[in-house]
Amino acid sequence: MLTALKIFLFITAALLLQVTILPAYFADPFKPNLLIIAVTYLGLKTGRGGGFIAFGLGLLQDCFSGIYLGLNGFSFLSVYLILNMAADRLYTNSRNLMILVVFLATIVNGFLHLILLLVFPTATGIYMTILAALIPQALVNTMFSSLLFSFPRLNALEESR
Amino acid sequence: MLELFRKYRKYFIIISLLLAAFIFYSWNLKNKERANLLERGVLNLMSPVNSVIAGINRGVAGIWNDYLDLLEVRKENKLLRHNIKVLNERLINGNEALLANERLKKLLDMKNLLQIPSLAASVIGEDTSPWFKTIMIDRGEADGLREGMPVVAADGIIGLLVKVVAGSSRVLIITDHASGVAGIIQRSRARGVVKGKGDGTCSLEFSLASEDVKVGDTVITSGIGGIFPKGLKIGEVSMVKKGEYGIFQTVEVRPSVNLARIEDVLILLQQPRE
To answer: How far apart are CA B78 and CA B240, in angstroms?
Structure first.
């Protein structure tokens, strides 16, 4: 119950940061996506039930980003499932690996957006914007994840699992 | 006589001394402004000592006074620091109010110019993704807003309302890839559709290569489509490229509104045509 409350608080704080505070300090294309960090964490650390949370996080992200409801829902769920399948083969207690996975997850998430937006041609020419913003966003996410995974409390939470 | 002197010697001496003192005093009266030899000697001898003692006295008094002052200084310092904070806060608030006043004045001018019912709103959030361009405003359905309503600023158009909920709405900015506004070059009346490019600029699409478009031309809304009223400023042509082949030319438009720094907007309360 306490863990759920912590996750809820983290997600709320991450959303508020992303929507209101961070845009004032991070100009385009260096906008962090804090929820993908949460999805990475869920994918590597939780069981199949985390898929619902990942999908829910995606829908939540869609409420504050773009006009396509379900885009992030799909991409977050896909990223979660890929990570969840790979989690058994990875040493997930390594902080460095987690940070690297956040970088990769951001890239994969961006490519999934690209594919979905090209399949349904609602926004022509968006691929240039996505490709240009993908690496900067991945780098900013990496920076944020390195800070987040440095918290001893988070590590303790991981160990208790 | 001598016997008498011996008998009252003591009184004689006293009287003699008093008399001598009196004579000395009266003799000195005529030179009272000047220091005599005795005074000179004493004063010259004592003045260095006096100076040292006076200095020590001043020092001790200074230390004592400083100590007493120090007791007050801490309190006073706290009070002054607090006062500085309050005054700084007032200064910042004053400047902020001045800037807000200027912005709102411009919006009001725009509102009066348009002669369409409108509603002012403040920006409360930005898009979380770098490849979508939307903002969130603090007005929604409860204020009479509906999807498709045009959103403008003092310098030109911003976008249109999407995803309207009770207390807030999202605005699709003209630089988003999904945005398209019918535009016209003010000078030559060349028509086209202003589409977002996602990088903070727009492009005027479907503009024929034969049309007269130059860098620096102002692009305004044409009114076609029924969303934006005719004549609102969209931006300025920043680049024109005409290929040898093809019927259209490439025209880049820089929005007239600084879309990265929007704080207050005006929503035009007109129902978009279905």
So the answer is: 63
Closest CA to B253 of B208, B211, B209, B215: B215
Contact A129 B260 (CB under 8 A): no
CA B7 to chain centre: 101
Burial of A110 from C-beta contacts in 10 A (0-12 / 13-18 / 19+): buried
Strand, helix or coil at A157? Answer: helix
The identity of residue A70, as a single letter, is G
Q: How far is Cα of residue B231 from the mean position of the Cα atoms in its chain?
A: 35
For residue B177, the chain A residues in CB contact (below 8 A) are 123-126, 129
The token duo for A38 is 């949460």
Spell out which residues of chain A touch residue B128, defining contact as CB-CB under 8 Å. Answer: 15, 18-19, 31, 33, 61, 64-65
CB B233 within 8 A of CB B157: yes
B-chain residues within 8 Å CB-CB of A66?
Answer: 127, 129, 131-132, 134
Decide if pLDDT at A36 tops 80: yes
- Find tokens 């996750």 and name the residue: A7
Is the Cβ–Cβ distance between B163 and B185 less than 8 Å? Answer: no
Give yes or no for A30 touching B (CB within 8 A). Answer: yes
Cβ atoms of A65 and B135 closer than 8 Å: no
- Written as one string, the DSSP assignment of B110-123 is HHHHH-S-EEEEEE
> ipTM surpassing 0.85, yes or no?
no
Helices A50-64, A71-86: axis angle to 10 degrees equals 150
| A106/A142 Cα distance (integer angstroms) | 9
Mean pLDDT by 10 residues, chain B (274 residues): 84 86 78 78 82 86 86 87 92 88 82 81 87 90 90 90 90 91 91 89 89 91 86 92 82 90 87 59
Do B139 and B168 form a contact (C-beta atoms < 8 A)?
Answer: yes
Locate B260 and state its tokens: 């990265």
